[in-house]
Amino acid sequence: MGLVIGLDYRNPFISPYKEFQRWKLHPSVKPLLEGSKRIGYGARALNEGGLQSIPKLTFPGGCLVGCSPGFMNVPKIKGTHNAMKSAMLAAESIFDTISSDIKQETVGVNPVVYEERIRNSCVWKELQSVRNVRPSFSSSLGLYGGLMYTGLFYVLGRGKEPWTFTHHGKKSCLKAEASMT
Q1: In this protein, which residues make up the domain named ETF-QO/FixC ubiquinone-binding (predicted)?
Q2: Can you give the pLDDT at residue 75?
């Protein structure tokens, strides 16, 4: 069981813990939990920026892997598989960079091939297909418009629309697809 509240939620004073407790006491949920035993409790911040928010992944001496760059599939709230795959691609890129005959000009290893490998991997393909789900809820479409959009383009179209929404707070709501590839 879990509860996700966006960090951009209108009420900055909301307590996710208290809201989760209230939800568990709801008349339709409480009977499901009676007699059960809690085996764990935790909290986590979800990097839900998606494809539009992925930063430059390499720098001299390292690269961004795992959950930190935002490789989470927002509609499924899953990202462990992408985090592990990004780490595997980073390890391969670092090994190839170290074992290559090209002399490193900078201090430390800069596995620039890692960015290319991520873009050609199943991680990028998955993020590409869900790129508009979260921004559609934050755009002028609103909750119901976001639900309709997600139903049409994610569920039926599998994210093949030729446009990419930007996150709210940006000047334009639509960005050309060519700039994302």
Answers
A1: 1-46
A2: 85
